[in-house]
Write a structure and sequence with these properties.
- The chain is mainly beta.
- Helices cover 12% and strands 40% of the residues.
- It contains 2 helices and 7 strands, in the order ββββββαβα.
- A hairpin with a 5-residue loop joins β2 (29-30) and β3.
């Protein structure tokens, strides 16, 4: 199987900590799995990455709690810069890896995922 390299120019992740997951997020669409997403820029490439493809992306992780936003990580302000990784399978329905597979090279988007699930199931913290 040939591994393809995708460069996602910008990926913005928004992590929502909310008491109720049933609330609506204005301007966001909802995937069948429950991932809320918004695509800001669509590049010229239409091929989207699959599991095991290599991707490179700039990203920002923003935690939103009680109406306040706090930037947790911004790849543009880190020493290593863009993240390069082989795209793994999803850890759970509606996870951030699903969002990464929605974008093609040159696209940018924003995804709302539950912070507890992201840190526990994806980052294996806590």
């Amino acid at each position: 199987m040939k591994n393809t390299f995708f460069k996602l120019v910008a990926l913005v992740m928004m992590v929502a900590i909310a008491a109720s997951c049933t609330s609506k997020y204005p301007g966001f669409k909802k995937s069948d799995s429950g991932l809320y997403y918004k695509v800001y820029k669509v590049g010229k490439d239409t091929v989207k990455p699959k599991v095991k493809d290599w991707i490179s992306m700039e990203y920002k992780l923003v935690v939103k709690s009680k109406g306040k936003d706090s930037t947790f990580i911004d790849s543009k302000k880190t020493q290593q810069g863009a993240l390069r990784m082989q795209l793994p399978p999803s850890d759970y329905k509606g996870d951030i890896y699903e969002g990464m597979r929605m974008l093609a090279a040159g696209d940018s988007g924003e995804f709302i995922v539950n912070a507890a699930s992201l840190f526990k199931k994806t980052f294996h913290q806590g």
